[in-house]
Amino acid sequence: MYPILYFFLFLKPSLKRDDIGEQVLRAIIGLILTFIVYYLIVPDRTLSFLISALWLPAVIQLIFSIGSFISGKEPIREAGFNILAALLLFVLCIGYNLYPYITGEAKKLAKMVEVTESIEKVSKIDAQHVIVISPETAYYEMQKMLGTLPNPSIYRIGELGVTMTKDGAIYVAPIEIDGFFPALSNGEIPGVIYVSAEKPSEAKVISVPTRVADSLLFSKDLNRYLRSYKKSAILFQANVELDDEGNPYYVGSYGHYKYGRKGPVIDGVLLVSFKDGKVTDYTKEKVPEWVDEIYPSDVSEIYNSYSGTLQDGLLNKLTTKKGVHIPTKWSSQTSVAGLQVNSDEVTGVIDADGRLKWFTDHTNTSNASTTMTGYTLMDMRTGKVVYYKTPGYINGKGAMNAVDKSLGANKANWTPVQPLFYNLFGSEAWVVPVVNKSDGALVKIAIVAAKNGYVVIEDTKEFAIESFKNAIAYGKISEVSDKNANSVKAEEKTITGKVARINSVTEGGSTVFYVKLVGQDTIFMVNRNSGIDIVLTRDGDDVEIKYLDIKDNGIVSTTGFKNNSVK
Predict the structure, then answer these.
(1) CA end-to-end span of the chain, whole Å?
(2) Which UniProt keywords apply (predicted)?
(3) Which of 70, 261, 393, 548 has a CA positioned 20 to 30 A from the CA of residue 214?
(4) What is the DSSP secondary structure assignment for residue 340, as one 8-state letter?
(5) What are the respective helix, strand and coil percentages of the chain, to the nearest 5?
């Protein structure tokens, strides 16, 4: 019904015989544009969409009416009426699309987002699952594996998404058909490809051919396939996830808009099995536990914008900007052709409870800013957002700049990508992968202290974490939290004993004392920040040491030192 109604909006409201030629031309234009809008774009079949798309027939009506007026084909009164009607149609469309901005109720958009504010600075992202593989590197590994498939030239890597499995976080993407003509002769895709997001590894293929995909044509097109099950719903991003047995599914969220065409609300999810194309419709409260992404990245981006900019209304956002903060705009210098990610603004991370969250850091409205106002974590299943205020820390863009400067001559070929915010040994830090600009291959792992921008760069995640731990011990990171929640195995312990040997080493102006206790194999690294008593300590003194029990290595960092022999 709605496509037919939309088509008639392009016609002239006239039954005069003299207008037949114009009506035929209008009909041809109307058929073409209606086909593009309703068949190629495949929108929701609702009155809401029709109103939001009135601008297109309004423009066509306006062009024909002005043409008739200029040519003298119509009298001034009739032409003026048609022009006015077209303008009113256009204004109605624009007003509907801008609601509630033009009604002064933009605050309602911010209030519809469930946001809790926190001043706790300790990162809630799980540092036991540090994501060091960037989308560029994941794509690089997937491309290598793609070459092992039969007829690899007809395939390409689809959009990358992050999902959680029993083995940790992974990047997963459908293997799409590359191009229109190959899609004409291939009615299915061979399956999906995935790679670890937490450690360097080879990509793997799950061979489950399916006849539904973004790159397939006509009724096999994924968006059109989902639309056939939800004609009147708003369809959001559809991503690939794996269930607990490793079976691939499309997860397509759907919902509605709360205010005109603004304010997306998630109502449920359509799960499409790769095995048989079967579609199962779940309300959001009943979605299976293995599904991570009920609230997709496109909704997360909108929610972050609403909560950060519209708390005090649209006028405040445009003028005084009191309390306004926006997601940090950063981008890498890679030129990896063909890479598709589901978002350039939010990134999937794992929180302390093992749940996937959308992460993005926020800054003020200046594009040049390199400091954080805070960061958000949005629960992918519930849509709830927590905004953590962290003023004074450098933001993701600042972390990338710090790494870029540390690369020296190598930055001609290497570039930092995807900074993520973690708590490492009680200190807030950005973990920043460094990749080849040309192909996205991982070359280094950098860690940047969020407090002062101190950078360590190593070949692997393990070496980078160890170097960062040593930097803390050397006092090169000015502030370490006394809270180690969600940190890398940083349980604080206390040991007492007698000093068997003590020596000091000075590097870069900082002095670190190495202490060995009687009967202990471990060597403790102590600086003056841990306790001033260290400078008076001698062999044989009784001491009490607080240290970070990170892992079974021979040298550990300390957080406290007391010499009980010094009175």
Answers:
(1) 91
(2) Membrane, Transmembrane, Transmembrane helix
(3) 261
(4) -
(5) 30, 30, 35
Angle subtended at Cα 423 by Cα 417 and Cα 426, rounded to the nearest 5 degrees? 145
Residues sharing a CB contact under 8 Å with residue 353, sequence separation 6 or more, in sequence order = none
Residues of the chain with CATH 2.40.50.140: 492-563
Cα–Cα distance measured from residue 465 to residue 253, given in angstroms and rounded to the nearest whole number? 37
- Residues 102-154: pLDDT tens digits? 877 889 999 999 899 887 766 667 667 788 899 999 999 999 999 889 889 99
d(CA 373, CA 68): 57
Asked if 537 and 513 touch (Cβ cutoff 8 Å), the reply is yes
CB 447 within 8 A of CB 467: yes
Q: How far apart are CA 241 and CA 248, in angstroms?
A: 6
What is the rounded CA–CA span in Å between residue 369 and residue 163?
Answer: 31
Q: Give the dihedral of Cα atoms 95, 101, 104, 109; nearest 10 deg.
A: 130
- Number of helices (H) and strands (E), helices first, in the chain? 13, 25
Is residue 445 within 8 A of residue 468, CB to CB? The reply is no
Q: Which tokens sit at 248?
A: 């691939």
What is the C-alpha to C-alpha distance for residues 258 and 254, in angstroms, rounded to an integer? 13
* The CATH fold of domain 492-563: OB fold (Dihydrolipoamide Acetyltransferase, E2P) (2.40.50)
Amino acid sitting at position 341: V
Instruction: Look up residue 542 and give its amino acid.
Output: D
Q: What is the tens place of the pLDDT at every residue in 324-373?
A: 988 887 777 787 888 888 888 899 988 877 789 999 999 887 767 788 88
